[in-house]
Amino acid sequence: MSARVAPSADVAQNASIGDGSAIWHLAQVREDAVLGTGCIVGRGAYVGPGVRMGDNCKLQNYALVYEPAVLEDGVFVGPAVVFTNDHYPRSVSPDGVLKRGDDWEAVGVTCRQGASIGARSVCVAPVTIGRWALVAAGSVVIRDVPDFALVAGVPARRVRWVGRAGVPLEPDGDGLWRCPQTGARYREDDETLTEVDQ
Q: Residues 40, 21: contact at Cβ < 8 Å?
């Protein structure tokens, strides 16, 4: 199945769009961006030059994903989320000359497999959002987020653990946690959560 691109979307000729992906109205996908299969880019979303997205990623309406972001398979980016890419942004140099693309070094946000970023969150690069982590809506992420962590606030801090289903885990004794939806179990060790083989 080929990709579906809305007539009002702006997709660079050398962007790579995987089969079954959909790019909706007024979205922009820049040069050398790579989208895997089954991705959705919502209305007005922006995908910067060279951004890499795995399979089955979703960018909701007006999400702004600036280069050099990397999204692994199954990443969800909520409405109006922003991924930054500059440590110290300035429009001009100290002498007032307009900065150009090669006047600064871009830094990116990396989202590991299955991570979800809630609506209107801001991820300040460089940060990594761990596997199956969940960033609550409206959060500002300024440091790396561990796998399976639920973070919230400004700045974002871990408030719970979540499993692959995205719901908060329940304590199961002796450093173990259980997903109330799937029954999957996880082990906590020194602020790190790992899956327990069933």
A: yes
Confirm if 130 and 148 have CB atoms less than 8 A apart.
Answer: yes
Whole-angstrom Cα distance, residue 52 to residue 187?
A: 31
CB neighbourhood size of 48 (10 A): 21
Give the tens place of pLDDT for each residue, 76-115. Answer: 999 999 999 998 889 998 999 998 877 888 999 999 999 9
Task: Quickly tell me which residue has 């007539």 as its tokens.
Answer: 7
Residue 185 has pLDDT above 90, yes or no: yes
Domain 4-162 class, CATH top level: mainly beta
Q: Which of 81, 87, 40, 41 is nearest to 64 (CA)?
A: 81
Residue with the two structure tokens 């299969």: 37
The whole-angstrom separation of Cα 10 and Cα 84 is: 21
Residue labelled with tokens 């979303």: 45
8-state DSSP, 84: -
Break the chain into its structural domains and give their ranges: 4-162, 165-198
Residues 6+ apart with CB under 8 A from 94: none
Say how far apart CA 95 and CA 64 lie, in whole Å: 30
C-alpha torsion angle, residues 75, 79, 85, 86 (rounded to 10):
-150
